[in-house]
Known about the structure:
Elements: E1 5-12, H1 31-42, E2 46-50, H2 51-57, E3 75-79, E4 98-102, E5 114-117, H3 125-134, E6 139-144, H4 146-154, E7 160-165, E8 193-201, E9 204-211
Amino acid sequence: MVLLQITINCAMSADGKIALKTRRQTPISNEEDKKRVHMLRNSSDAILVGVETVISDNPKLTVKEKYVKTPRHPIRIVLDSNGRTPSDSLVFDGKAETIIVTNEGCSKTFPNAKTIRCGRDDVDIPNLIPILERIGIKRLLVEGGSTIIWSFLRNRLADEVNIFIGSIIIGGERAPTPAGGDGASETLEMVPLRLKGAEVLGSGVLVRYEVVK
């Protein structure tokens, strides 16, 4: 039984893309959504991303005082099976606790970060969840990338999915979508959602779903 509350949050274009075909970070969220995201981060115990997000975007994964008066700075978790996180990444800036999760065969250590070894080849996300629970994480925010999001959905680990839809079109077959990875190969593998609500945020729309388990 998963006690951890897991929320997936992402922003996509009106045609369902989260970045350019080059996978470079793409501005999609408006100011209203940025404020919402930072408030959501502030209410979470930890923020989780994959190593590809760190390599391509180099995010801080902290809470900005511009949007939250007294930010908490939740734990930053990076899923990095083979220890590829660059040592100069902003997640190592010491402004919040950072955990790098690798596979069991990786012995690499990282500056200003703790490590968890979980999984033989790739990080074993279902087995990671109880480990996170044991260290006191109760609310986990998953911010990407698309392969990580699909892994949480495919394993029915997420409880809620928040998608901000920006008023732009990116286009292209190679531009990534919110859920990547292998995806469903038949209808039984699709992940059903239940609509919880939708609201206009400035020039975009926020849609909230519950994951049906």
